[in-house]
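Example 3.2
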Amino acid sequence: MRARSMMVGMSLLLGCGGAGNEDAGGEGEVFGTGDPVTSTSNGSADGTTGPGTSAATSTSAGPDGTTTPLDDTSSPPIFDVAVETTGVIPGDCCGPADFSYIWIANSTQSTVSKINTRTMIEEGRYATRDTPGNPSRTSVSVDGRAVAVANRYGGIVKIWARPGDCSGLDTSTGAGDIKPWGTDDCVAWYTPFPQAASQRPVAWTTGTLNQATCEWEGQKIWTGEGRGGTSPGMCSDSVVYVHRLDGDTGTIEDTIQIPLGCTTFGWYGGVVDANNDLWLTRLFEGSPGAVRVDYDTLTYETVGPFYGYGITVDHNGRIWGGTGVPGRWDPATATWTTIMGSIQNVGVGLAEDQQARMWVGINGGIQAVDVDTMALLDTVMFAGETIQSKGISVDVDGFIWAVPDSQTRAYKVDPNDLSYQQFNGLVGAYTYSDMTGGALNSVACNPPAG
């Protein structure tokens, strides 16, 4: 690994700074406050099932379309919050996390849901733009304090996870409490990209760790866009763009113009490695299948063969793509290796758990792959589920999350016994990205040697 400031993991201490149909969707219920009901889990390749639990209560919500300019968020919080501890000792910032959220884009509602991964309660829902933006990719900062959300129709928004970081007390409390645009105090900033016809990838960098305080400083946000399209969410141009934003202010600090054709989506997915370099997929754009942008020099290189909807990085620094026959790109050897066997998927996300298993979405469930041997491992099938799991993420406690394509639900899978719980109440949910911060945490805590 190139010389770089030490990157260690996610200490989520408050003040310590966590081709499908892309437009279909419906409404549902919210998990977390109702009576328990029974679900089932499938934790083995032989199809045996075990018990799981979920709970639900009805709610309804929707943005009102108000277009109020965002408040200046440069001032510090205006209220006090309780002090929280993690047990992190100096020099060991990969300590236990005090809080954990998953941020799932409700694409057809143009909102993002903040769901407590431990309680399975949705604690906030936020508009992502003043007009419908069709959000999809969400990226959580390494300290878990904020999420960045990309709108397919252009624009990046940053939202704080904890009230202590917000500019005031007026913030969403759940799915039925979506504040008018520009009025939610936990929306830190919004950066428009008025020329973007397609803006999908978004990924935080770790920033630099202050080991005395376990705070991350100078965090940046990568994004990519394509221009010139006539259909919303699609582009038509001879070049594509990569931008790097200041994570504190949303200011666009760097722009790289890359002479690659943009005929469908331009860029599709993005992930950051242990060097904070950005890796981007180019779905349906032909060769090259991926591009790496160097954090230090802002130069780029084409990568391939590489093919994938979703993209992630494993603990050895290898870049994975998940489509058809998922595979991995090894930067050290410049080789592409596919899994051993076949699985039922078309276009999916993927994420590595804390047991060196890469989880890939399949029809009705998820499939594990050994990150070293590429052999198929366990399969988890969700009872009654007929839709392909698209978004896959692993939270800071090691639980695997799966979000079916453009539906109302998500699943939380126990990494040990592979039982699961179901969350309901999403609206046209569609997310390919590090929506828990688990992948960024992994590369920060476990940077590959060499």
